[in-house]
Design goal:
The protein is an alpha+beta fold. The chain folds into three domains: 144 residues, Adenine-n6-DNA-methyltransferase TaqI, Chain A, domain 2 (Alpha-Beta Complex); 105 residues; 147 residues, DNA methylase specificity domains (Adenine-n6-DNA-methyltransferase TaqI, Chain A, domain 2, Alpha-Beta Complex). Helices cover 33% and strands 22% of the residues. The chain is built from eleven helices and 23 strands. It is globular and about 75 Å long.
């Protein structure tokens, strides 16, 4: 059994701040040096980071307090907000919103230190001080105390947790590629009109007949329709408290815009919850399997298909519930995500207290509908793509739960492991 010793951060890391070159000097920016800011880690889900939104030049580096951090340094935001975390995939530098940790490899495993900090983020946040915004100083970071096992045990613990994160990140990458494939397929068939004809050849470039329409030339046999023509209903929800309902700690999932990602996934950790009584009061917005959700207030245009995994569920007035009856859910999803629909809806946004889009605009949005034989072919491919996306998404939820369960137990020594674990 490895002996765990209490050490300060400064006993196994050098703590380094960052800096910002003058933004008034163009020659300081646009170089080859990766420069990371807290904004670059907002909603960043990977462990390693290669570059941020902007790079700086050697001249910018020399004329600021920024310092080059070696590969595998732990980047920890120290203000606005405290606690964002990433590992430098190569040499990088940061702005002053970081207190980065350069690990002494003879005393600590950088992956272990990453998970050590990750497991203690809430504790670190609590040490922030300041009136305008909370900040944690370099001195406080240096004097943070943690119990660490010997180096081989650190490496073994890190390997267990890293193997889970490796699989999660691989699944995320696969899902991104599958989503891109679906978008590419839609563009090829429904914008370029290069769907396979009876001979399996691309329709338009093989001389397929085109006819005029209100939206320009379209393939013969296709028709101009509205969203209202192909749906059973287009409605939206209500905030429970406006009708005497209430939110609860647990219960039926209540979906808000923040619960949807840009790619169309659900973030279960950002679901609110309501009880059965409130759900009955919100009968109009009870969500069913196959419903397509479309955000219509605040952040407009996020799209997701409801699956059994999130049911029972309800939603508020910032999300439209679109229930298709003449087209498939995934075809409607890819249609609503397309530039055809997104551009049309964006041009009809009303700016009030916050941006919003009316249900009437959605219902009257026009698109071109192909014959059933074309629809059935695209449906087969889209269903296969999204079945795989759903599989990897569900797998990641299970892996994330397992990692989050193991993390505090492994990092504290509560769960012992074989030091020769590989």
């Amino acid at each position: 059994m490895s002996e765990w010793k209490e050490l300060k951060i400064e006993d196994f890391c050098e703590v380094i701040g960052g800096g910002t070159p003058s933004t008034k000097e163009d020659s300081y920016y646009g170089g080859e040096i990766s420069w990371i800011t807290p904004r670059d880690l907002t909603n960043y889900k990977k462990r390693f980071i290669l570059r941020g939104e902007r790079n700086i030049t050697e001249l910018g580096l020399k004329n600021s307090s920024a310092r080059i951090l070696p590969k595998n340094s732990i980047l920890l935001t120290s203000r606005a907000p405290i606690g964002y975390l990433a590992i430098a995939e190569k040499e990088v530098c940061t702005n002053q919103g970081f207190k980065s940790l350069v690990i002494n490899p003879e005393k600590a495993d950088y992956n272990f230190v990453y998970y050590l900090i990750k497991s203690n983020v809430e504790r670190i946040k609590g040490l922030g001080t300041g009136t305008t915004f909370a900040e944690i100083s370099g001195s406080v970071v240096k004097n943070l105390k943690f119990s660490l096992p010997d180096l081989p045990t650190q490496t073994s613990i890190a390997e267990i947790l890293s193997s889970l994160d490796d699989k999660i990140e691989l699944n995320n990458k696969i899902n991104q590629e599958l989503e891109t494939l679906a978008q590419t397929l839609f563009k090829q068939w429904f914008i370029d009109f290069e769907f396979p004809n009876e001979k399996g050849e691309p329709y338009k470039s093989s001389g397929g007949e085109m006819v005029d329409s209100e939206l320009g030339e379209i393939p013969k046999g296709w028709e101009l329709v509205t969203i209202d023509d192909v749906t059973e209903t287009v409605t939206k929800g209500t905030t429970p408290t406006t009708i005497g309902g209430r939110f609860t700690e647990q219960g039926i999932n209540f979906i808000k815009v923040e619960s949807l990602t840009e790619s169309g996934a659900f973030i279960k950790s950002k679901f609110a919850h309501i009880d059965d009584e409130t759900n009955l009061l919100l009968k109009r917005s009870v969500i069913k399997k196959g419903d397509v959700l479309f955000s219509i207030a605040g952040t407009i245009g996020r799209v997701a298909v409801v699956t059994n995994e999130i049911l029972p569920a309800n939603t508020n007035q910032a999300i439209a519930i679109i229930r298709p009856n003449k087209i498939s859910s995934y075809f409607l999803k890819i249609l609503m995500q397309s530039s055809l629909i997104q551009n049309d809806t964006q041009s009809n946004i009303v700016q009030a207290v916050q941006a919003n889009l009316s249900l009437g605009v959605i219902k009257l949005t026009k698109f071109i509908l192909p014959p059933n034989n074309i629809l059935s072919k695209i449906d087969i491919q889209l269903n296969n793509i999204y079945d795989n996306i759903n599989h990897f998404t569900n797998e990641n939820e299970n892996l994330t739960t397992l990692r989050n369960t193991l993390l505090p137990k492994l990092i504290s020594g509560e769960l012992e492991i074989n030091e020769n674990n590989n």
